Amino acid sequence: MKSFIAKVYITLRSGILDVQGKAIEHALHSLDFEMINNVRIGKYITLNIEAQNDGQAKVFVENACKELLSNPIIEDFNIEIIEND
Length: 85
Known about the structure:
By secondary structure, this protein is an alpha+beta fold. 33% of the residues lie in helices and 35% in strands.
């Protein structure tokens, strides 16, 4: 078995109102950062995985995202797998 690190980025799907992002955008504008727009807030998760290869590790993490880590109705996720030396 090899050891891998998974980096998971979870964001709201486009078209879903990001209330937290809008609040931060408004605060940034009030601080004279009008050049910053379309703020979106998400989650970043790291996981250590034991698997035969990076493909198997990715499948494990995809299943974890679908079953627990993300809400598939309103969120998308991207996974980066890195072999842990």
